[in-house]
Amino acid sequence: MGDESEWMKLPIDQKCEHKVWKARLNGYEEAAKLFQKIQDEKSPEWSKYLGLIKKFVTDSNAVAQLKGLEAALVYIENAHVAGRTTGEVASGVVNKVFNQPKARAKELGMEICLMYIEIEKPEPVQEELLKGLDNKNPKIVVACIETIRKALCEFGSKIVQLKPIVKALPKSFESREKAVRDEAKLLAVEVYKWIRDALRPPLQNINSVQLKELEEEWVKLPTTAPRQTRFLRSQQDLKSKFEQHQAGGDDEEGDEEDEAPVVDAYDLLEPVEILSKLPKDFYEKIEAKKWQERKEALEALEALVKNPKLESGDYADVVRALKKIIGKDSNVLLVALGAKCLAGLASGLRKKFQTYATHVVPTLLEKFKEKKPQVVQALQEAIDAVFLTTTLQNLSEDVLAVMDNKNPSIKQQASLFLARSFRYCTASTLPKSLLKPLCAALLKQINDSAADVRDAAFEALGTALKVVGERLMNPFLVDVDKLKLDKIKECSDKVELIHGNKSATCTKAVKPAPQVKVVPSSNSGDKVDAPATKTAGPPKKPSNKVGLTKKLKGPGPASAPGGKGKKAMEVKEVEPELSLEVCEERAASVLPASCLQQLDSSNWKERLASMEEFQKGVEVADKKELPCQALVRMLAKKPGWKETNFQVMQMKLHIVALIAQKGNFSTTSAEVVLDGLVDKIGDVKCGMKAKEALTAIAEACSLPWTAEQVVAMAFAQKNPKNQAEVLNWLSTAIKEFGFAGLNVKAFISSVKTALAATNPAVRTSAITLLGVMYLYVGAPLRMFFEDEKPALLSQIDAEFEKMQGQTAPAPIRKLVKRDADDEETPEEQDEEENGNVQDLLPRTDISDKITSELLEKLGDKNWKIRKEGLDELNTILNEAKLIQPNISELPGVLKGRLNDSNKILVQQTLVTLQQMATAMGPNIRQHVKTLGIPIITVLGDSKANVRAAALATLNSWVEKTGMKEWLEGEDLSEELKKENPFLRQELLGWLADKLPTLRSASSDLILCLPHLYSCLEDRNGDVRKKAQDALPMFMMHLGYEKMVRAAGKLKPTSKDQVVVALEKAQAIVPAKPAAPSKTSSKSNAARPSSTVSVRAQTATTNDDTDAVALKNDPKRNKSGSTAKIKPGISKKVPSKQNLKDDDDKSGPIFIIIPNAKEQRVKDERALKVLKWNFTTPRDEYTEQLKTQMSSCVAKWLQDEMFHPDFHHHIKALSTLLEHLESETEGTVACLDLILKWLTLRFFDTNTSVLMKVLEYLKLIFTVLSKEDYHLTDNEASSFLPYLINKVGEPKDVIRKDVRSIMNMMCKVYPASKMFSFVMEGLKSKNSKQRAECLEELGALIEVYDLNVCQPTPAKALKEIASQIGDRDTSVRNAALNTVVTVYNICGDQVFKLIGNLSEKEMSMLEERIKRSAKKSSTVSAKQVEEKASRTQGLNQNAPVPRKGCEEMPSKLNQARSSNAHSSSESNPTIPREFQLDLDEIENDNNAGRCELPDLVQHKLDDLYEPVCLPEPKNRSVSPHFDEIHGSTDSTINFVVSQVASSDINTSIQALAQIDEVLRQEDKADTMSGHIDQFLIATFMQLRLIYNTHMADEKLNKREILKLYSCIIGNMITLFQIETLAKEASMGVLKDLMHGLILLMLDSRLEDLDEGPQVIRSVNLLMVKVLEKSDPTNILSSLIVLLQDSLLATTNNTPKFSELVMKCLWRMIRLLPNNVNIINVDRILLDIHNFMRVFPRERLKQMKSDLPMRTQKTLLHTLCKLLGPKIMDHLALIENKNESELEAYLRRVTKHSMALSGGKIDSDTEKGGSTIEDKESKAKISETLAEIFKKIGSKENTREGLAELYEYRKKYSDADIEPFLRKSSQFFQNYIERGLRLVENEREGKGRISSSSSSAGFSSPADESPYVASSTSVPSAVSTNGEEVGPAVYLERLKILRQRCGLENNSKHEERQPATSLLSKPTVPTVASSSELLHNKLAHLRDSREYNQEQESHHPPMQTNSNTTSAANLDDLKKRLERIKSSRK
């Protein structure tokens, strides 16, 4: 019961989070009641429960959860902030509510989801519900589907997005759970109500039974459109309208129907990307001269544009090609096909096609001159589809342009197009301005002489009349006679407008174009009215017949079986056979009569002469008029091919070749001669001529046709010689023509016949032919010969082995047209050839062998029978070798076997699938979705051998199919989604291997990203690693931006991790593979034989290299030029210049251009050229460098430098080495370019080049150091990073050389700047590089001391120390050695500099330090002096001095070597002047009298002068400054950036400009928003001065002081403007205060004349900063700064921390004024963090208790000001138990309340006060008690005195006598003197200098700052860190006075009682120097007595140094003079 009573008292929100379920139950019930009571939906009460609502719905207790759901529902319904919880609550409902057994919980969950939709959050709810469909729990899936259905039913399709629902439906229908399928069916019915037939296409692939059931349900649905019954909050007007309709019945149902949303099926479809699917040679083919090739290209495009929705992209080239086909192609069939393609493109792209519409419409209109119906119909479809993508307004000009065309068909079709277009218009889209010119043109046509034109014009006008009405149309028809007007009206009555029939159009198919098709005929105008839904069939048939009769006329050539030999069919049209008489007649027109007569002469000489004349006649005849058939028939006349004389026969065969090459040689002509040629091919003398003739015929009639005829004729004969030679010719011909179109099956049959021949020559030729075929077909070819005899098979294998590794040669011949005079341009056929090679192989149809018995076996329950089935299937595949893709129902059965419980069968199935891929070839791609994806699933198997088999199978499939099919769709992402670690790591690894090899990937790859990102956070380390490896590969195809966008949908925590991983991956994204280069087998298409002779001639004119280049580079071959060739393709051919004499290389290699280098630097800064910064050099960098060198480097040398061959680079480097001494000036002038070129060489892999580069670098830096040249920053930044990268080379020789060069660079470049570059090298992933860089850093530090470290020693050493934890041993050792080097320089301070290390790392470091101390030997004084002399005057920023430091590099080398061998020097010997002489000290102590040295005389009077701030000169405002308001931000940004400039003058000018702005009230506001930026720049400049300028002895210190003055003046001006001052953020203020305090403590300033003045100015500035800044920010920054200083994370002294605390004290004083505007929560959070780092125990252990007292004072003050309310300000602290803050505050609050209560009571009892109407008695007592308490404490004495002075001044009648009576006379005197001093200070009559430790803030009570002086009293801190009281100083003073013979006999004036001093205001008097000194000494004595008195009452406390008041400097001066005089 105790527990219950405990939680019953809790507030509601805490009950809801209680661990006891009953408490939560009660909390939910009360919360629900509370939510119902809150009337204001914007009440702040709602916000309290924002984070709890998810817990309401996900409560683990079922009973409590129900109440939580009810409360959550009320909250969502009423709270205005409820929308913020949508995602998390909806997710909780899906995962934790829908799976509950209680129906009530499920109902409430659904209602919550619907309520979220009602409050305008449908998207996140729908997203979570759709995610729930993937849940494994069927209850959740059913509930999600039901909720979606309810949401759709109630809210309608406008609110609930249908596209993702329709996409998810098919998957739900495949579920194994009947409940899921039933619910999916109900959802499909509901969706159908809203979109009707648009739902059919997405559901076509579901189970036929389910589809049938759906169809039955759909038929039952009412035809009326459904209505929205529930409305969003923003739809209340619709809701009221709906309620009115309900009340009024269904009278207005028709109106409501009109308002029902129309869903276009097009919007539900996924767009298809077709541009990448176009054939690679599409653009070449569509421009081809052969119409068949153009047809192929168009057919390929037509197949792609049939997709109803196309992905947007750049279709400009495609549209341009189609426009050319439609407008210029002479083949009408292609015109029609092109128009169909255009229509498909327009329909698929819709509005995205608009940009191309105006380009194609004029061409379509012009082409209507064609009269063929199929062309006209295609053009109509195209122009109608194009119209739907744009507006009539856009097309009107093009239509009007053809209305006056002379061709009546064009006019008719233009009018008909307008008529059809008008049907889609409305009165608003057909305005008067558009209608007027169109009507004018149409009215002209109704008077046209052609009836068709008139009818079309009437129809167009009638349609326009129907659209706009008679009122708008009549003004245009005024002049039309009645008869024609009646005709127009008659047409108008027949027209049905499209927009008037919405119900019909919304259920149409996706493509709207066919709806407006018109049957093309002469009277088509009358038939236009009825919208044709089908394409006009009848007109097509005659046209097809016509085409076929043309094609089939005459004996056609034999085509390749299976329709694969398209190329074989693409030969010349078959020529009819001519009679002998006709042939003689035609031949006579070409040949002389004597020639014809002697053809059959019996004398061979006459026949020979006749042949000669025949040849001449053919040669001189015109190509076009050459009667080929007639001539070859003349040659075949007796004796014909039986010619016995070989000379005549040779001539005859040569003439045949000549005719075939020159004339239009047809297959008919070829058939006349082929038999004779085959007969002579085996002849020894005539065989070569016969082969040449066959080759010429193959060029004319195509090789496939010729080869098939020749092989058939040869094997019909029995002459083995002819057979062998035919096969040999065929081998050569295939190499020359390529393999395209060859009938492989026929050849294999012939080869098998040849292999069986008895003649060995025939068999040898057959094997040779097989070898050539193997080059093209590959390994599958062997399958067909496996049944040959083993001996023969071994010969075949030997031939195949010879061919392995060889590539098929580039075809040099091709099918040539003789129609045109010019030779045909080369065409690329290689891809087509290789793509079709597999298709050419004969394949077996095994579908009849896949019997039902086999399928039953494969699906049997008994694993042995299943194994038998697999064995049978393997046998079938082995026998068939190559199979057709038709394999019946086998895929479904094999898919089941991949999930077999018997892993052996799974492996066997995988082997079978591997075999199937080999057998089916590329056709296997159609089974990727059914069989391929299940193979991926097997990758998730737990057994490694099964996964390996699956991966092998997967790769064998991909080898055949390519990756395209695998990446398309969602299958891959679904697999990746499965949370199987094996599947994920295998699949990601596979993708990481495959994706880099692709030039493009499907856009569906983006679907995998969410799952890829989840893999990055997977629990399995291997999965995470594979995901990280795959990221760059995905980014290669998707791009960084897309992937980051996808990551935006993740949870914030996941998103941050993923974005970091993406940024890392971005740096290592591989480049996409370039297009495959044209190798010997893949190059430009063959050339005519004439080109070969040209190539041969060209080759003879050049050397061997040139010949090789020509051979390898077809483009070069063609042009015969010496153009440059890209690296990697072939070697660059030496130009003619390279072949000239060496005289051309004489003269200087560098051209010196004045100021060229400076100009290049300016260009780079102005971003006119690329900045030399890259990971790997890209081409643009190389080209840029080449351009820059062109003007200043000799041309021949430049050619060598940029040659692709590395030998030329070596030559170039040798040249540079030779000319270095002689052309030093030129080398320096071009040094930046040379260094950049050398960085490019660093990326070469050739070691010889790299060694040569390093050799050159060593020499060049030696020369530069002799010339006393200093590298510019531009030269260094473009060279050093790449040199440092090479220090990690694996070869020792290279590493040593690089280190040597880095050593030499210190002579020409400042070591400090060098240090920064080497530090960057530590970020490398190469461990060798990191180790070498660390050693280099150690060497630099050893030689140049810690000043070399950049940006600061602390930061640099932290980075170096972080390497101690590296995994690599060499890196760890190098880091340790470097830190040891630092230790040797600065001792234990190194531990502060390196920051916090882990225990392990610290122990390693300490061990190394011990070891180094043992090993090292003491360095002699001589070495120390030598080192000191080297480093003396060395500045870290100024260039390294060259003179007097020649030995420095050797020392650096020595340091490097010593660092590398883990040895270091021992602690350095302290120089004599810094050592303590203990003996002398002892003697001094024993001496009775102190021998005082002569003191330096200081002019101390100057210190009395008041502090004056330097007044900046009034400079005129910059001429461009008035433009600030035009581009304010950019101008201010520019000026502010200059403040941090390393150039002092630049910084001063920028500060002056800002000062001018700040001093002008009207312009000061322009700095708003830039304060942080300005302050950052300022303290960066302060840091630069502190670290760099002050250490630079060469710099004039006056310049530095001037810069200080400008900075401080600017800041003071800024912090006087309160609005701007408050903009400074906490972090910036922290850094600023850090910089200012360091400046105040900078002892170097004291040595400067105006240094103290600067310190006083800084003092004043700090006061301004504390007073004017945002109090929260400044207080917070000081707390954090104090914490950092105490942690020693900054390089601070104890004084630093002390000053920070004094700043805090001042802020504590200001707290009463600021408490109302301060953010107490933030302050308490900072104090909490401070107390967490410094708990009480740790603070007590500190030497000083000031931090503890500061902390307590701050908390006490806050408690006092806020009281108990302070406990409400701990909200920002997450875990209050981490520190003692809460407990401490409670204790202080309780105590102060009790104390204040007691005081008030006691004061009230004592009586009233003398103050009238100002303060109550209790208040007076409390205030005065607090003041006297402060005076009594050691640390707050001065503060108390100041407050008492102020209080007395304010209330002159206040009675303080009662408080004084309680104290001793000493205390009263003490108060009297203190008040007098305060009075003097306030009235400015005297200045008391504070101690040096105070630095301007002597105590929290200080009213104004005081400046530290070098002559001030020493700090009240002893050497051991403990504070020393004033008594110690008095004792010391006493001893000194006695030694010097002075007595302490100074008499003090009689003092007035404190009461008289305080009773009335005194007139301030000028205090003399002696009085002040007396006051000082008396004060010290009284102080000591008082402290002794107080010690009995209070525990001893440390005294602040400021409690010892500073003496007047003048008195000190007199005192010192007295001491000196007494000494004399």
Commentary on this structure:
With 2024 residues, the protein is mainly α. The protein has 102 helices and no strands. About 20% of the residues have low confidence.
N- to C-terminal distance: 93 Å
Query: What is the gyration radius calculated from CA atoms?
Result: 50 Å
User: In terms of per-residue confidence, which ranges show pLDDT below 50 for 5 or more consecutive residues?
Assistant: 250-260, 501-573, 819-836, 1077-1143, 1417-1505, 1507-1526, 1798-1815, 1885-1924, 1943-1980, 1985-2007
| Total count of strands | 0
Helicity, as a percent range: 55-70%
The largest β sheet comes out as: none
Mean pLDDT: 75
Strand content: under 5%
- What is the global morphology? globular
What class, by secondary structure content?
mainly alpha
Helix count, DSSP H or I runs of 4 or more residues:
102
Short account of what is shown:
The protein is an all-alpha fold. The chain contains 102 helices and no strands. About 20% of the residues have low confidence.
Task: Offer a few descriptive terms.
mainly alpha, about 0% strand, globular
Write the layout of secondary structure elements.
Layout: H1 2-8, H2 12-16, H3 21-37, H4 45-48, H5 53-57, H6 62-78, H7 86-97, H8 103-118, H9 122-132, H10 138-155, H11 162-173, H12 178-195, H13 208-220, H14 236-247, H15 253-259, H16 265-268, H17 282-285, H18 291-305, H19 316-328, H20 332-349, H21 354-366, H22 373-387, H23 392-402, H24 408-422, H25 432-445, H26 451-468, H27 470-473, H28 482-494, H29 502-505, H30 524-527, H31 540-552, H32 566-569, H33 580-588, H34 593-598, H35 604-620, H36 628-635, H37 646-662, H38 667-680, H39 687-701, H40 703-716, H41 720-737, H42 744-755, H43 760-777, H44 790-803, H45 830-840, H46 852-858, H47 863-880, H48 890-898, H49 903-920, H50 928-938, H51 944-961, H52 964-967, H53 971-977, H54 981-994, H55 1009-1016, H56 1021-1038, H57 1040-1047, H58 1052-1066, H59 1089-1101, H60 1104-1112, H61 1114-1119, H62 1156-1165, H63 1179-1190, H64 1195-1201, H65 1206-1220, H66 1224-1229, H67 1231-1242, H68 1247-1266, H69 1273-1277, H70 1280-1286, H71 1292-1305, H72 1311-1320, H73 1327-1344, H74 1353-1362, H75 1369-1386, H76 1389-1393, H77 1399-1415, H78 1421-1431, H79 1448-1460, H80 1478-1486, ...
Helix pairs in contact: 3-6, 6-8, 7-8, 7-9, 8-10, 9-10, 10-12, 11-12, 12-13, 18-20, 19-20, 19-21, 20-22, 21-22, 21-23, 22-24, 23-25, 24-26, 25-26, 26-28, 33-36, 35-37, 36-37, 36-38, 37-39, 38-39, 38-40, 39-40, 39-41, 40-41, 40-42, 41-43, 42-43, 43-44, 46-47, 47-49, 48-50, 49-51, 50-51, 54-56, ...
